[in-house]
Amino acid sequence: MDDNKPPLVIAIASGKGGTGKSTLSISLAMALADLGRRVTVLDANFELPSIATLLNISPTYTITDLIEGRQSIRDVIYNGPQGINFILGSSLPKPMRELSTAHHFGIVNAFDTISKELDILIVDTAPGINSSTLNFVRASQEVLIVTTSEPVAIASANALIKTLHCSYNLQKFRILMNRVHDTYEGPKAFKTLEKLNFNNNEIFLTYAGHIHEHKSARNAASKGQVIYKMFPKSKFSQDMKTLSQKIDTWPIRETPRGHIEFFMDKLIGKGARTSDTNEEPIFNTPIT
Ligand SMILES: Nc1ncnc2c1ncn2[C@@H]1O[C@H](COP(=O)(O)OP(=O)(O)OP(=O)(O)O)[C@@H](O)[C@H]1O
Ligand SMILES: [Mg+2]
Protein backbone atom coordinates (compact mmCIF):
# COMPACT_ATOMS: atom_id res chain seq x y z
CA MET A 1 0.00 0.00 0.00
CA ASP A 2 0.94 3.62 -0.43
CA ASP A 3 3.08 4.89 2.48
CA ASN A 4 1.50 8.32 2.25
CA LYS A 5 -2.00 6.99 2.68
CA PRO A 6 -3.28 7.10 6.26
CA PRO A 7 -3.92 3.64 7.69
CA LEU A 8 -7.44 2.35 7.56
CA VAL A 9 -8.72 2.25 11.12
CA ILE A 10 -11.48 -0.29 11.70
CA ALA A 11 -13.26 -0.45 15.04
CA ILE A 12 -14.72 -3.86 15.83
CA ALA A 13 -17.72 -3.29 18.06
CA SER A 14 -20.84 -5.00 19.35
CA GLY A 15 -23.87 -4.20 21.45
CA LYS A 16 -23.87 -7.49 23.30
CA GLY A 17 -20.77 -9.09 24.78
CA GLY A 18 -19.32 -12.35 23.52
CA THR A 19 -20.37 -12.04 19.87
CA GLY A 20 -16.83 -12.91 18.74
CA LYS A 21 -15.07 -9.55 18.30
CA SER A 22 -11.70 -10.59 19.70
CA THR A 23 -11.69 -13.98 17.99
CA LEU A 24 -12.52 -12.37 14.66
CA SER A 25 -10.09 -9.45 15.16
CA ILE A 26 -7.18 -11.88 15.37
CA SER A 27 -8.23 -14.07 12.46
CA LEU A 28 -9.07 -11.05 10.34
CA ALA A 29 -5.63 -9.56 11.04
CA MET A 30 -4.08 -12.80 9.80
CA ALA A 31 -6.23 -12.91 6.69
CA LEU A 32 -5.31 -9.31 5.88
CA ALA A 33 -1.64 -10.08 6.51
CA ASP A 34 -1.98 -12.94 4.00
CA LEU A 35 -2.98 -10.31 1.46
CA GLY A 36 0.26 -8.49 2.17
CA ARG A 37 -1.21 -5.80 4.40
CA ARG A 38 0.72 -4.49 7.38
CA VAL A 39 -1.68 -4.91 10.25
CA THR A 40 -1.74 -3.84 13.88
CA VAL A 41 -4.37 -4.96 16.38
CA LEU A 42 -5.17 -2.78 19.37
CA ASP A 43 -6.90 -4.46 22.30
CA ALA A 44 -9.07 -1.58 23.42
CA ASN A 45 -11.24 -3.59 25.76
CA PHE A 46 -10.20 -2.20 29.12
CA GLU A 47 -12.86 -4.10 31.00
CA LEU A 48 -11.78 -7.50 29.84
CA PRO A 49 -8.77 -7.49 27.54
CA SER A 50 -8.48 -10.88 25.91
CA ILE A 51 -6.23 -10.76 22.85
CA ALA A 52 -3.11 -11.77 24.83
CA THR A 53 -4.99 -14.68 26.39
CA LEU A 54 -6.39 -15.78 23.06
CA LEU A 55 -2.86 -15.84 21.64
CA ASN A 56 -1.38 -17.28 24.82
CA ILE A 57 1.27 -14.58 25.07
CA SER A 58 2.54 -12.49 27.96
CA PRO A 59 3.52 -9.06 26.79
CA THR A 60 6.23 -7.11 28.63
CA TYR A 61 4.31 -3.88 28.23
CA THR A 62 0.66 -3.14 27.66
CA ILE A 63 -1.52 -0.22 26.72
CA THR A 64 -1.45 0.89 30.37
CA ASP A 65 2.26 1.66 30.05
CA LEU A 66 1.44 3.90 27.11
CA ILE A 67 -1.49 5.59 28.82
CA GLU A 68 0.48 6.24 31.97
CA GLY A 69 3.37 7.62 29.97
CA ARG A 70 5.95 5.02 31.04
CA GLN A 71 6.60 3.66 27.58
CA SER A 72 6.38 4.91 24.04
CA ILE A 73 4.09 3.47 21.41
CA ARG A 74 7.00 1.51 19.93
CA ASP A 75 7.83 -0.09 23.28
CA VAL A 76 4.32 -1.40 23.77
CA ILE A 77 4.12 -3.03 20.36
CA TYR A 78 4.28 -6.80 20.55
CA ASN A 79 5.55 -8.43 17.36
CA GLY A 80 3.16 -11.28 16.87
CA PRO A 81 2.83 -14.09 14.36
CA GLN A 82 2.89 -13.32 10.64
CA GLY A 83 4.40 -9.90 11.18
CA ILE A 84 1.22 -8.68 12.85
CA ASN A 85 1.77 -6.13 15.60
CA PHE A 86 -0.33 -6.15 18.73
CA ILE A 87 -0.88 -3.49 21.34
CA LEU A 88 -2.18 -5.56 24.17
CA GLY A 89 -4.57 -4.60 26.88
CA SER A 90 -4.42 -4.93 30.60
CA SER A 91 -7.23 -4.57 33.08
CA LEU A 92 -6.92 -1.04 34.19
CA PRO A 93 -7.43 -0.13 37.82
CA LYS A 94 -11.01 1.00 38.25
CA PRO A 95 -10.53 4.77 38.14
CA MET A 96 -8.51 4.39 34.96
CA ARG A 97 -11.21 2.44 33.20
CA GLU A 98 -13.25 5.51 32.71
CA LEU A 99 -10.66 7.18 30.56
CA SER A 100 -11.42 10.60 29.25
CA THR A 101 -12.42 11.20 25.68
CA ALA A 102 -9.07 12.84 25.18
CA HIS A 103 -7.31 9.71 26.36
CA HIS A 104 -9.07 7.59 23.79
CA PHE A 105 -8.18 9.88 20.98
CA GLY A 106 -4.70 10.16 22.40
CA ILE A 107 -4.25 6.43 22.13
CA VAL A 108 -5.37 6.46 18.55
CA ASN A 109 -3.18 9.51 17.97
CA ALA A 110 -0.15 7.66 19.30
CA PHE A 111 -0.54 5.47 16.26
CA ASP A 112 0.04 8.48 14.11
CA THR A 113 3.73 8.17 14.86
CA ILE A 114 3.78 4.69 13.38
CA SER A 115 1.12 5.26 10.76
CA LYS A 116 3.56 5.07 7.86
CA GLU A 117 4.45 1.57 8.99
CA LEU A 118 0.95 0.15 8.89
CA ASP A 119 -1.88 -0.22 6.44
CA ILE A 120 -4.68 -1.34 8.71
CA LEU A 121 -5.36 -0.82 12.39
CA ILE A 122 -7.97 -3.13 13.91
CA VAL A 123 -9.39 -1.81 17.17
CA ASP A 124 -11.05 -4.52 19.25
CA THR A 125 -13.41 -2.69 21.59
CA ALA A 126 -15.37 -3.50 24.74
CA PRO A 127 -18.98 -4.54 24.19
CA GLY A 128 -21.93 -2.29 24.74
CA ILE A 129 -22.63 1.37 24.94
CA ASN A 130 -19.80 2.74 27.01
CA SER A 131 -17.79 5.89 26.49
CA SER A 132 -14.64 3.96 25.67
CA THR A 133 -16.19 2.07 22.78
CA LEU A 134 -18.12 5.08 21.51
CA ASN A 135 -14.92 7.12 21.39
CA PHE A 136 -12.86 4.50 19.65
CA VAL A 137 -15.60 4.04 17.08
CA ARG A 138 -15.78 7.79 16.52
CA ALA A 139 -12.05 7.90 15.92
CA SER A 140 -12.16 5.16 13.30
CA GLN A 141 -13.00 5.45 9.63
CA GLU A 142 -14.95 2.25 9.64
CA VAL A 143 -17.03 0.46 12.21
CA LEU A 144 -17.66 -3.23 11.84
CA ILE A 145 -20.45 -4.30 14.14
CA VAL A 146 -20.16 -7.96 15.00
CA THR A 147 -23.39 -9.67 15.92
CA THR A 148 -24.93 -13.09 15.83
CA SER A 149 -28.42 -13.76 14.52
CA GLU A 150 -29.79 -14.12 18.07
CA PRO A 151 -32.59 -11.59 18.69
CA VAL A 152 -30.84 -10.17 21.76
CA ALA A 153 -27.61 -9.64 19.84
CA ILE A 154 -29.50 -7.95 16.98
CA ALA A 155 -31.40 -5.71 19.39
CA SER A 156 -28.15 -4.78 21.15
CA ALA A 157 -26.41 -4.06 17.85
CA ASN A 158 -29.32 -1.82 16.97
CA ALA A 159 -29.08 0.02 20.30
CA LEU A 160 -25.38 0.68 19.67
CA ILE A 161 -26.09 1.92 16.15
CA LYS A 162 -28.83 4.23 17.42
CA THR A 163 -26.56 5.66 20.11
CA LEU A 164 -23.70 6.25 17.68
CA HIS A 165 -26.11 7.93 15.32
CA CYS A 166 -28.01 10.04 17.83
CA SER A 167 -25.01 11.08 19.91
CA TYR A 168 -22.36 11.47 17.21
CA ASN A 169 -24.29 11.55 13.97
CA LEU A 170 -22.52 8.50 12.59
CA GLN A 171 -24.50 7.16 9.66
CA LYS A 172 -22.67 4.28 8.04
CA PHE A 173 -22.29 0.93 9.72
CA ARG A 174 -21.03 -2.36 8.40
CA ILE A 175 -22.55 -5.47 9.90
CA LEU A 176 -20.72 -8.77 10.26
CA MET A 177 -22.87 -11.75 11.12
CA ASN A 178 -20.88 -14.24 13.18
CA ARG A 179 -21.51 -17.88 14.03
CA VAL A 180 -23.91 -18.57 11.18
CA HIS A 181 -24.84 -22.14 10.32
CA ASP A 182 -25.63 -21.58 6.65
CA THR A 183 -25.36 -18.84 4.06
CA TYR A 184 -28.99 -17.73 4.51
CA GLU A 185 -28.82 -17.04 8.23
CA GLY A 186 -26.67 -13.89 7.90
CA PRO A 187 -28.66 -12.01 5.24
CA LYS A 188 -31.91 -12.95 7.01
CA ALA A 189 -30.74 -11.56 10.35
CA PHE A 190 -29.36 -8.51 8.56
CA LYS A 191 -32.83 -7.84 7.10
CA THR A 192 -34.26 -7.93 10.60
CA LEU A 193 -31.75 -5.29 11.67
CA GLU A 194 -32.54 -3.22 8.60
CA LYS A 195 -36.24 -3.35 9.38
CA LEU A 196 -35.57 -1.91 12.82
CA ASN A 197 -34.14 1.13 11.03
CA PHE A 198 -36.73 1.25 8.31
CA ASN A 199 -37.97 4.69 9.30
CA ASN A 200 -34.57 6.28 9.59
CA ASN A 201 -33.16 7.46 6.29
CA GLU A 202 -30.00 8.76 7.91
CA ILE A 203 -28.70 5.35 8.95
CA PHE A 204 -27.04 3.25 6.26
CA LEU A 205 -26.34 -0.36 7.05
CA THR A 206 -24.14 -2.50 4.83
CA TYR A 207 -23.88 -6.26 5.07
CA ALA A 208 -20.16 -6.93 5.41
CA GLY A 209 -20.60 -10.69 5.34
CA HIS A 210 -20.84 -13.69 7.61
CA ILE A 211 -18.52 -16.02 9.46
CA HIS A 212 -19.53 -19.62 9.96
CA GLU A 213 -19.72 -21.25 13.35
CA HIS A 214 -16.64 -23.39 13.98
CA LYS A 215 -16.95 -26.18 16.49
CA SER A 216 -13.32 -25.94 17.59
CA ALA A 217 -13.24 -22.18 18.20
CA ARG A 218 -13.51 -22.48 21.94
CA ASN A 219 -11.03 -25.28 22.20
CA ALA A 220 -8.52 -23.49 19.97
CA ALA A 221 -8.83 -20.34 22.06
CA SER A 222 -8.15 -22.23 25.27
CA LYS A 223 -4.87 -23.42 23.74
CA GLY A 224 -3.88 -20.01 22.41
CA GLN A 225 -4.38 -21.18 18.85
CA VAL A 226 -6.06 -19.33 16.01
CA ILE A 227 -8.81 -21.01 13.98
CA TYR A 228 -7.78 -19.25 10.79
CA LYS A 229 -4.33 -20.83 11.01
CA MET A 230 -5.37 -24.19 12.43
CA PHE A 231 -8.16 -24.93 9.98
CA PRO A 232 -7.37 -22.97 6.83
CA LYS A 233 -9.87 -24.93 4.72
CA SER A 234 -12.78 -24.51 7.11
CA LYS A 235 -15.79 -22.40 6.21
CA PHE A 236 -14.73 -20.05 9.02
CA SER A 237 -11.36 -19.42 7.35
CA GLN A 238 -12.83 -19.15 3.86
CA ASP A 239 -15.31 -16.56 5.15
CA MET A 240 -12.46 -14.70 6.79
CA LYS A 241 -10.58 -14.64 3.48
CA THR A 242 -13.67 -13.30 1.71
CA LEU A 243 -14.07 -10.60 4.35
CA SER A 244 -10.42 -9.54 4.12
CA GLN A 245 -10.68 -9.31 0.32
CA LYS A 246 -13.79 -7.18 0.68
CA ILE A 247 -12.09 -4.89 3.20
CA ASP A 248 -9.24 -4.46 0.76
CA THR A 249 -11.68 -2.88 -1.68
CA TRP A 250 -13.45 -0.60 0.80
CA PRO A 251 -13.15 2.95 -0.49
CA ILE A 252 -11.31 5.43 1.68
CA ARG A 253 -13.94 7.64 3.27
CA GLU A 254 -13.78 11.32 2.60
CA THR A 255 -14.64 12.15 6.17
CA PRO A 256 -12.14 13.27 8.76
CA ARG A 257 -12.83 10.13 10.79
CA GLY A 258 -9.65 8.21 11.23
CA HIS A 259 -7.57 11.23 10.34
CA ILE A 260 -6.19 11.59 13.76
CA GLU A 261 -4.91 15.14 13.56
CA PHE A 262 -8.47 16.32 13.17
CA PHE A 263 -9.45 14.87 16.50
CA MET A 264 -6.36 15.99 18.27
CA ASP A 265 -6.98 19.55 17.16
CA LYS A 266 -10.54 19.27 18.30
CA LEU A 267 -10.01 17.43 21.53
CA ILE A 268 -6.63 18.40 22.79
CA GLY A 269 -6.88 21.96 21.56
CA LYS A 270 -9.05 24.55 23.22
CA GLY A 271 -12.26 22.71 22.47
CA ALA A 272 -11.25 19.64 24.39
CA ARG A 273 -10.67 21.35 27.65
CA THR A 274 -13.81 23.38 27.53
CA SER A 275 -16.42 21.11 26.04
CA ASP A 276 -16.08 17.36 25.92
CA THR A 277 -13.77 16.51 28.72
CA ASN A 278 -13.15 19.51 30.92
CA GLU A 279 -9.77 18.01 31.59
CA GLU A 280 -6.15 18.72 31.03
CA PRO A 281 -4.53 17.32 27.93
CA ILE A 282 -3.70 13.66 27.85
CA PHE A 283 -0.36 12.05 28.51
CA ASN A 284 1.97 13.82 30.86
CA THR A 285 4.94 12.48 29.02
CA PRO A 286 5.62 12.30 25.32
CA ILE A 287 3.94 9.41 23.62
CA THR A 288 6.10 9.12 20.56
N1 LIG B 1 -17.36 -18.24 14.49
C1 LIG B 1 -17.32 -18.79 15.69
N2 LIG B 1 -17.64 -20.12 15.86
C2 LIG B 1 -17.64 -20.69 17.07
N3 LIG B 1 -17.34 -20.03 18.21
C3 LIG B 1 -17.02 -18.72 18.10
C4 LIG B 1 -16.99 -18.04 16.86
N4 LIG B 1 -16.64 -16.74 17.10
C5 LIG B 1 -16.46 -16.63 18.43
N5 LIG B 1 -16.69 -17.82 19.03
C6 LIG B 1 -16.62 -18.11 20.47
O1 LIG B 1 -17.43 -17.16 21.16
C7 LIG B 1 -16.87 -16.87 22.42
C8 LIG B 1 -16.71 -15.37 22.58
O2 LIG B 1 -15.74 -14.93 21.64
P1 LIG B 1 -14.90 -13.60 21.85
O3 LIG B 1 -14.21 -13.59 23.17
O4 LIG B 1 -14.06 -13.42 20.64
O5 LIG B 1 -16.09 -12.56 21.89
P2 LIG B 1 -16.00 -11.00 22.20
O6 LIG B 1 -17.09 -10.36 21.41
O7 LIG B 1 -14.63 -10.50 21.98
O8 LIG B 1 -16.34 -10.98 23.75
P3 LIG B 1 -16.31 -9.67 24.71
O9 LIG B 1 -17.54 -8.89 24.33
O10 LIG B 1 -16.38 -10.24 26.08
O11 LIG B 1 -15.04 -8.93 24.41
C9 LIG B 1 -15.55 -17.63 22.50
O12 LIG B 1 -15.77 -18.85 23.21
C10 LIG B 1 -15.23 -17.92 21.06
O13 LIG B 1 -14.44 -19.08 20.88
MG1 LIG C 1 -13.39 -9.40 23.28
Total strands: the figure is: 8
The assigned CATH architecture is: 3-Layer(aba) Sandwich
The secondary-structure class comes to: alpha/beta
Question: What form results from the Cα inertia axes?
Answer: globular
Instruction: Enter the CATH topology name.
Output: Rossmann fold
Our measurement of the CA-to-CA distance between the termini, rounded to an integer number of angstroms, reads 23 Å
Instruction: Name every ligand kind in the structure.
Output: adenosine-5'-triphosphate, magnesium ion
Q: How many domains comprise the coordinates? A: 1
Strand order of the largest sheet: 3-4-2-5-1-6-7-8
Name the CATH superfamily classification. Answer: P-loop containing nucleotide triphosphate hydrolases
Approximate helicity band: 40-55%
Outline the secondary-structure elements.
Layout: E1 8-13, H1 21-34, E2 39-44, H2 51-55, H3 63-67, E3 77-79, E4 85-87, H4 94-97, H5 101-110, E5 120-125, H6 131-139, E6 142-147, H7 151-168, E7 172-180, H8 185-196, E8 204-212, H9 217-222, H10 227-230, H11 235-249, H12 260-268, H13 270-274
Parallel strand pairs: 1-5, 1-6, 2-4, 2-5, 6-7, 7-8
Antiparallel strand pairs: 3-4
Helix pairs in contact: 1-11, 5-6, 5-12, 7-8
The chain binds adenosine-5'-triphosphate and magnesium ion.
